[in-house]
Amino acid sequence: MKVEPIVYGDRKVYSVAAFNRGVAQWLTRLPTIWVEGEVTELRRQAAWQTVFFTLKDPDSGSCLSAAMPRGQFDALRLDLRNGERVHVYGRPELWEQKGELRLRTLSIERFGHGEHLAALERLKRKLAAEGLFAESRKRPLPRLPRTIGLVTGNDVAAKRDVLTSIQARFPPARVVVAETYVQGPRAAAAMVDALRAICSEPEVDVVVLARGGGGFDDLLPFSDERLVRAVATCPVPVVTAIGHEQDTPLCDLAADRRASTPTAAGRLVVPDLEELLAGLARSRAALARGARRALDRHAQRLAHTHDRLRRAPALLVERRRAALAQAEGRLRALSPRATLDRGYAIVRHDGALVRSSTAVTSGDAIAVEVADGSFGARVV
């Protein structure tokens, strides 16, 4: 539809809608092109028919809005994430309602590190689903390792940083070093072999896998599935010190501990000797105080026992005397004399007790015993 202006005398004026429509029609003359940039502000909703995102130039920061039908976007199965670098094929168009320029996208392809990032993300999800990154399977580091294994390249700085850190903190530590490839296509397999070899050494209790930084491509071997599985199944705990703080290869997720630098890895695997000696001194002092307290308690217990033993004979005699007095009282209470004191008498005939009136006859001589003596009598 042709865009017509409004004529005001000798002046032709276009409405905003007409202007936007004219620009949009003119943009249709431009060919389809490829545009390179980083994906940012990716917006995809299940209820939307269009996927929106922004292409950003990493050097200048310039931005370009882009849109693509959701069906076409999903059919590509790229699993795009913000920050990935892509090549976008499409043509410029103007959204007339807002007057905004955007790129109507027909196709998207990853570029540079994008494909590697996508592959790493898929591998990460796969290994995480198998539980290789679970916190529950991570093992504590030994307090005093007998031997420390160090798998590293011939990078003098990384090896020196680990050894210097260990030597400074714990001079008696014993370290076995295995140098291997840590960069390039042969690095992953070489590191797996070195890891197995060093774990076969006697008395190795912990292994440090170290590299002194590098670019994205340099660190790719440390996300190789073979090496990640070897780290996860290593018979002893593994500490990784790969790259810098912002670098996170998949080996870091599978390792029992991650150190930000080789120097930090050395501090993780050995205790500080001065702190250890200070702790031993404190423990020795606590043991001495405990021994003194125990000795004092035993001495008090012994003195108490000695005092009880010293007083025991007198107490025994006193208890026996009290028991004898008690028995005497019972005997006195049961004695016939006590009965006589209450006014009773004991009658005997021919030396035998008279228990019944039929035991005597008139005229028999009897003996009568009372409390204070006895006298003779004759039965009437």
Describe this structure in words.
The chain is about 40% helix and about 25% strand. The protein is an alpha/beta fold and about 375 residues long. The model has no long low-confidence stretch (mean pLDDT about 90).
Largest sheet: 5 strands, mixed, barrel
Give the count of helical stretches. Answer: 11
Structural class designation: alpha/beta
Q: Provide the spatial order of strands within the biggest beta sheet.
A: 3-4-5-7-6
Helix content: 40-55%
Distance between the termini: 172 Å
Note the beta-strand portion: 25-35%
Beta-strand segment tally:
16
State Rg.
53 Å
Unreliable stretches covering 5 or more consecutive residues:
none
- What is the approximate shape? elongated
Q: Quote the average pLDDT.
A: 88
Oligomer: single chain
Secondary-structure element pattern, one letter each: EEHEEEHEEHEHEHEHHEHEHHHEEEE
Question: Can you lay out the helices and strands and say which pair or pack?
Answer:
Elements: E1 6-8, E2 11-13, H1 16-27, E3 33-43, E4 50-56, E5 63-69, H2 70-76, E6 85-95, E7 100-110, H3 114-129, E8 147-152, H4 156-169, E9 175-179, H5 187-199, E10 204-211, H6 216-219, H7 225-232, E11 238-242, H8 250-254, E12 257-258, H9 262-269, H10 273-334, H11 336-341, E13 346-349, E14 352-353, E15 365-370, E16 373-378
Parallel strand pairs: 5-7, 8-9, 8-10, 10-11, 11-12
Antiparallel strand pairs: 1-2, 3-4, 3-6, 4-5, 6-7, 13-14, 13-15, 15-16
Helix pairs in contact: 4-9, 5-7
